Amino acid sequence: MTFSVVPVILCGGSGTRLWPLSRAAFPKQFLTLSKKGTLFQQTIQRLQYFDNNKIQISNTLIVTNEEHRFLVLDQLKDLKITDPRIILEPVGRDTAPALALAALEARQNDNDPILVIVSADQAIRIQDKFVEALEDSIEIAAKGSVVILGIKPDYPSTGFGYIKKGGLGSSRVSDVIEFKEKPDLETAHKYIDSGNYDWNGGMFIMRASIWLNCLKTFDEELLNRVVEAYQQKTEDNIFIRPQAEIFKSISPNSIDYAVLEKLPSSQIPIKVISIDVGWNDMGSWDAVWKAEDHDESGNVQYGDALLKNTSNSLIYANDRLVVTSGIKDLVVIETADSVLVLDRHKTQDVKLIVAELESQKREEHNLHRKVLRPWGWFDTLDEEPMFKVKRICVNPHESLSLQKHKHRAEHWVVVKGKAEIQCGDKIINLEENQSTYIPKGEFHRLSNPFDEPLEIVEIQSGNYLGEDDIERIEDKYGR
Fold first, then answer.
1. Does the domain at residues 370-474 carry the CATH identifier 3.40.109.10?
2. Could you tell me the sign of the dihedral formed by the alpha carbons of 271, 273, 274, 275, in that order?
3. pLDDT of residue 169
4. SS (H, E, C) the chain
5. pLDDT band at 171 (very low <50, low <70, confident <90, very high)
6. pLDDT in tens, 12-22
């Protein structure tokens, strides 16, 4: 018997606990925290390595936010994946509606594949054991069960939910008796000592029809709204967009709360397979420190860092040299616009810092200084009330939108490559060390029709210089 399997990657969330590297517009799943690639890329690759002639893997389904679609595309391009299936949520409504969209898409043409559902922001060290557990899970799910991968706990965590296992089956495969919320430390110790609990790592295996039937049983209103939004979807090449206003009307709910926690007392079977695969949810800087290889002093370092008399610390140098001396148990994260220093044992406090930045409406909560765009990137070098200086890179054969600005004028100086510029009814071609002026209110477009990257320095002047002062007339990226 051959099992048809569709990997489903839930790629939402902001990952604010990894600020300042992770931002609302650049969440943690797209970060490169090791030489293996980003967490998202590792997840994609992890689900392609089934060495089993009974399993037929279809194209991965990715559910992500509309605002992150070009980050997804860029990182898939690095993996030479050219035919993804990407469902774009207009707003985040947690994991239950996201999985419902994936299940509906997987059921097209009356198919009923087995879904392997994972999130895009986890790390796993032992790949072969993980694949072995998935293969066992697929065989069980094919018979109608919901299967959850339980993480064998290695310390009494108060940050994870727990799965209580029953005594039926082998020691590796058990019935799920109940789900437990994040416990206090004393309760967590009791769970560990009993040997009868796993962490809930948020990895599930089930048929698409089973998930839709579960929603119909436990949250039919949510299912009906998702079905309505999906039936009125639009498709743009690889992008699948549910109807926005209907989807926005859905009340947020998670897979766990909407369905899984209700299954043990229902007629729908739910099993847990316990795994010990070096799993890490990368949910804090301390988790990142634990997941990576340490030097002889217990340190993890990235980038241009010089460590003296430093122990058990995580040092991340992103843009500049970072030097430490005489410290221990610290996290130091440096980016172009922010530096974070905190106790490694209190890294959960980062979410409070991000909340404070958001309440102050500081841009550091949302964007990096260097901002990726589908055509390339820009880096804000300097800014005062009446001017802003940017370095802009346009990738080969890409272009910005045809646009105009109500409040600002712009000077452009080419510093690398060659530019083709539309300004009003004129076409201007510039080479290195040449410049042009874009008057306020004039239609214009910057293009790079050549094979080498184009870089310019842009000087904006005006009484308002926000990114929302862009009126797009025409845009190849559908913005």
1. no
2. negative
3. 46
4. CCEEEEEEEEECCCCHHHCCCCECCECHHHCECCCCCEHHHHHHHHCCCCCCCCEEECCCEEEEEHHHHHHHHHHHHHCCCCCCEEEEECCCCCHHHHHHHHHHHHCHHHCCCEEEEEECCCEECCHHHHHHHHHHHHHHHCCCCEEEEEECCCCCCCCCCEEEECCCCCCCEEEEEEEECCCCHHHHHHHHHHCCEEEEEEEEEEEHHHHHHHHHHHCHHHHHHHHHHHHCCEEECCEEECCHHHHHCCCCCCHHHHCHHHHHHCCCCEEEEEECCCEECCCCHHHHHHHCCCCCCCCEEECCEEEEEEECCEEEECCCCEEEEEEECEEEEECCCCEEEEEHHHHHHHHHHHHHHHHCCCHHHCCCCEEEECCEEEEEEEEECCEEEEEEEECCCEECCEEECCCEEEEEEEEECCEEEEECCEEEEECCCCEEEECCCCCEEEEECCCCCEEEEEEEEECCCCCCCCEEEECCCCC
5. low
6. 876 688 999 99
- Per-residue model confidence as pLDDT tens digits over 32-52: 887 778 999 999 998 887 767
For tokens 């430390």, name the residue.
185
3-280 carries CATH number 1.10.238.10: no
β-pairing, 408-416 vs 435-438, is antiparallel
Tens of pLDDT along 292-309? 889 999 999 999 999 999
| Contact of 453 with 376, CB cutoff 8 Å | yes
* 236 or 276, higher pLDDT: 276
Separation between Cα atoms, residue 468 and residue 154, nearest integer Å = 48
The single residue listed with the structure tokens 């999130």 is: 119
Q: Which long-range contacts (CB under 8 A, 24 or more apart) does 175-183 make?
A: 175/264, 175/269, 175/270, 175/271, 175/272, 176/148, 176/263, 176/264, 176/270, 176/271, 176/272, 177/264, 178/261, 178/264, 179/256, 179/260, 179/261, 179/264, 182/158, 183/158
Q: Does pLDDT of 150 surpass 60?
A: yes
Stretch 49-64: mean pLDDT: 84
List the structure tokens of 14. 């902001």
Mean pLDDT computed over 442-455? 97
Residue ranges covered by each domain of the chain = 3-280, 294-359, 370-474
Distances (CA, A) of 270 to 116, 128, 134, 213, 459: 15, 24, 15, 14, 60
What is the arithmetic mean of pLDDT over 165-186? 83
